[in-house]
Amino acid sequence: MRKFSIFSNYLVLFSILVGIILSGGIGYSFYQNETLAIESDFRRDVGDKAAALERELLINLEVLYAVKGLFNSSDDVTEGEFRRLASSFLVRHQNIQALEWIPRVSLDQREKYELQRRLLHPDFEFTEREFQGSMIRATERKEYFPVYYVEPMEGNEVAFGFDLASNPKREKILRKSRDLDLSLATASITLVQEISNQKGFLMFMPIYRGEPNTLIKRRDKLIGFVLGVYRIGDMFETAIKYTGAQGINLKLIDNTGVSAEQLYSNYSSDQVLHTTQFQLTYNKPLSRFGGRQWTLVATPTLGYIAERRSLLPFISSVFGILFVLLCGAYTYAIIRRSSLIKVEVEERTQDLNEAKLELEELSHTDGLTKIANRRKFDEQFEKEWQRAVRSNTSLSLIMIDIDNFKQFNDHYGHLAGDQCLRDVAKALKSNMSRNTDLIARYGGEEFVILLPNTNEPTLLADKCRMNIEKLHIPHEPSSVSEYVTISLGVISVAPTQNCDPFSFTAKADKLLYLAKDSGKNRVCIDERLILQKGDVIDFKAPKK
Ligand SMILES: Nc1nc2c(ncn2[C@@H]2O[C@H](COP(=O)(O)OP(=O)(O)OP(=O)(O)O)[C@@H](O)[C@H]2O)c(=O)[nH]1
């Protein structure tokens, strides 16, 4: 029972543990699914921002095409025409810092070009940067690519007249643009004239006479380049300003060269450590632009993640665990209650058994003398009879009756009679030494002693008789003795199947009455005791 209860408790505990682990697992799985959904949302948001940036780049590139159109439509575009067109675009495209016209000028044409610009700008000349960094008059070379028109002039005075062919990097990109008939962008440059010191890039668009379709023709027909100076930061901010998702840290990286270069970032590096989720960092390459490969590196902030997290994983785990605990507690209560009921039932069954035994004992006990009663004797006699038959052993019976008991009652009263019966019963019982022997009150003032497998029942009978007399219970009216005496009939048998137990007790009774008739205070026996098995011998002569 106790073992079962411990096993049940462990089973409940185990089930609770499994339930808690499962609830945690369900919560974790919700969390994982949510993370995947957030990741997918995040990539889509970054994709939107990348598309917006690509769109912004293309819109700004269109400006160069418009300026190119001007030079294609006329062989002699004046500074005024250029400035009018350029300034109208610059008003609408704030991300363009400057628009420039870079003509191709041979050494022979240099003077003519310089003179022409000096009409309006007296100090104009083709310049280049010397080693120390200061601007000097451009040295002689076969071909010049000077900044000839620039809009706005304000802030770009240093660039005005600067020969791009004097800078090897610029010259290289110019030649490549010319040869491929491609708009090409430079690597990032620092726009020193900008307050924010933001980075920018130059975009060159080649302009030819006619429509040359071979490399040689392109080299021959090149007139010059339209140049745009773009502010990367402004362009970036304009592009992503109207995209929905907030809370994403973005970096624009130029991966064109061997080493990556950061062009722009919308956050400072010291704020990133505690606020971002690095494991979700996503690199989104943009379409190639001006021969350059830019990549948008995006990392979500904690705020971005928190906005998209729900309480579902937490709630499902907590409710799951609470549910499991409640079920466990309920099951434990039921098991405990049932075990308590079982204990109670067992206790009550034990009490009932004890009460039953007590009742049985009572139903087999004589109320007055507290020795076995007639019912007990009848049951015991039947059992011992059967046993004697089976084991082929003897069974003896002593029938006892108090002499002249009516007179005792009449003389001393019924209460004294009762006490006499108790004393006699006690004295008779004291003669019994074996557990298998039984003394019972047979009825009224009659007693019976059942002796299984006893050799000398007569000796015991006579001992009983003497012991009662020795009690010296006064019996004045008795005609036999001055004390209470008893008469006894003794009979023995080794019963067989054919023997009749009722005739056996009847004969014992008969022997008792023969003892009475012979003068009382004596034992009557059958002198031929147990001569033959299965034979009950009739009384022949009383004996004192
Ligand atoms: N006090 C008392 N008397 C009882 C009880 N049972 C039977 N008796 C009395 O025992 C007496 C038996 O009387 P009888 O059957 O005439 O026998 P007797 O007087 O003993 O005469 P003999 O048997 O010939 O010696 C009756 O008076 C019963 O009332 C009992 O429980 N208590």
TrEMBL record:
Localization: Membrane
Catalysed reactions, semicolon-separated: 2 GTP = 3',3'-c-di-GMP + 2 diphosphate
PROSITE patterns: CHASE (PS50839), GGDEF (PS50887)
E.C. numbers: 2.7.7.65
Keywords: Membrane, Transmembrane, Transmembrane helix
Cofactors named for this entry: Mg(2+)
Chain segments annotated as transmembrane: 7-31, 311-335
Enzyme class, UniProt record, top EC level: transferase
Record InterPro entries: CHASE_dom, CHASE_sf, Diguanylate_Cyclase, GGDEF_dom, Nucleotide_cyclase, Rev_trsase/Diguanyl_cyclase
MF GO annotations: diguanylate cyclase activity
Chief location: membrane
Domain CHASE stretches: 73-297
Record domain GGDEF: where: 393-528
Gene3D superfamilies: 3.30.70.270, CHASE domain
One GO BP annotation of this record: cell adhesion involved in single-species biofilm formation
One GO term describing the cellular component: plasma membrane
Protein name: diguanylate cyclase
